[in-house]
Amino acid sequence: MALLRTGAAAFLVTALVALSFIPSPGAAFYIPGLSPTVFREGDRVPLYVNKIFSEKSPLPYAYADLPFVCAPPKDAKKAWLNLGEVLRGDRISTSDYELVVGQDIKCQTLCTKRVLAEDAALARDFIANDYNVEWIVDNLPGATRYNLGDGQATKQWRYRAGFPLGKVKWSKSNIHNHVTIRILFQNQPGSSGGKLIVGFEVSPYSIDQGDNDSCPEDPLKVGAFQAVSDKEVDIQYTYSVQWIEDKEVTWSNRWNLYLVSTDVQIHWYSIVNSIVIMVFLAGLVALIIMRTLKKDIAIYNEEEMKDDQDEGAGWKLVHGDVFRTPRYSSLLCAILGSGVQILVMAISTIVFALLGILNPSYRGGFVSFGLFLFVFAGAFAGYYSARLYKVFRGTSWTKNAIVTATLIPGFLMTIVFLLNLFVWSKNSSNAIPFGTFFALVVMWFGISLPLSVIGAFFGQRKAAIEHPGRTNQIPRQIPEPVWFLRPRLTIVLGGLLPFAVIFIELFYILKSIWEDQYYYMFGFLSLVFVILLITCVEVSIVVTYFQLCDEDYNWWWRSFFVSSFSAVYIFLYSMVYFTKQLSIDHFVPGLIYFTNSLMICVVYGLLTGTTGFVSTYWFIRRIYSAVKID
């Protein structure tokens, strides 16, 4: 009952907090901690160029490095990037586009670029793969409008971040060499001449200007398009600027138009579906605790009633073996230590997201915070691993701490390094620079590893976790299990329930990762996350209890695998998503997708598996401590 009360309390508290952060349709997306930049007439507003990206390929490229666009200015400055921005392929630098507050420009030539044949072929390949360009003004990505499609005269449009690099028309690849930049602003109340930028729109055009040195003032009236093929060509790049006052959009809700309007009822359906599964499992746990266990313990503790035991009391017969040290105990300690580290990181990151610190305007924030929290959570990994290592009577806690800090991170870092070789071969901005890779290694060995050793030092100084009863010297023979309690079957079926809790929300998470959409439903995410953890607790306890009733005391590893096996279903789901939602048809982009999916599933499996193990370990110690053992 204590387990149920704790789980229910955690769910209710998180639900109340999370509900307050679920944005209602049309509500302002407020970003705490950020203050607006006030511009005045005549101020120059910098336009930054970032990268090109595509839903058809996870390989972005730095815009300033493209050989077929205007070269960056000689005094171009690279923007400082956080760790998350570097890892997601951002490469931000200044440009020659002149944006002066209040000054419209009808037509301005930026440069005339002589594009070589091989560079033109590269541009054609990017256009064929639907690459989009990302520019930034006042921390807003340049966007194109799209209509929600209701056909009404009311404003039903949203922003799609980025604008197409070009388009394919009449079997020809045409590059967008003219852009109309619209800066939407709002007059700041109480400020003389102060303006706040609330929108950044880009309308791209492809114009074949021939021998004209000046660009047309109305690009829509130009009938010819600027085509690129495998031949050398001169491309004239031009732009226009419009400053438009918008009285509807405010600075506090300017990000709302970038957020994809999803049906909130779908998220609520996901929550209801998850709650139904959680309540079903909670009923099984309550039945076990309130009826079966209570009856079994009462019968077992009464000498005159021992002969009345039914077959469901088999879990008490293995009390002398249930705490026997499992095989590969050192490996189990290291894996569970990393699982605790990931669990602390995940909970902390979601809390920061709920508080509004991690939001769409903070590019790379999720990755940056997640990595730093993971590094500093190494102390928790070392502490828990050392405590469990002491239970198994390990002899070298320092070795165990080092293995804990290097096993899983080393596995992931090796995959990242090998994958990075393929990304380097494509000259993508997504390739991790040597300096960043070195910084990751320093964070790993300079912070996470020492913290793991420190945590292990305090963990091994604590008294060993006491187990009720003694372990028999000779292991008890395990009878042949019934068919529905075979280890592989229970693991496969047990992993289905945690996956069923999250598969609807998982779709939106994958869209935000692979289709460059902003994810902002952190309230729903936190609710699903709490339900997921409770479901992992319940399914691990239920499966382990029936396993012990069948007199199989090898529960250590199985309690971990039951809830972590849902990671396998997530990987299978990612394969379905790859074939149904994405249009990736090249080797390296496909390799990037599946390798990153594999790493995500490994991290998820460690999180859920550790949650199931920790709760099951607590449950078993509680039920056996209630039994009188001679």
UniProtKB/TrEMBL annotation:
Protein name: Transmembrane 9 superfamily member
Organism the protein comes from: Dissophora globulifera
UniProt-listed Pfam families: EMP70
Membrane topology per record: Multi-pass membrane protein
Chief localization: Golgi
Family: Belongs to the nonaspanin (TM9SF) (TC 9.A.2) family.
Gene that encodes it: TM9SF4
Signal peptide (UniProt feature, chain positions): 1-28
Gene Ontology process terms (BP): protein localization to membrane
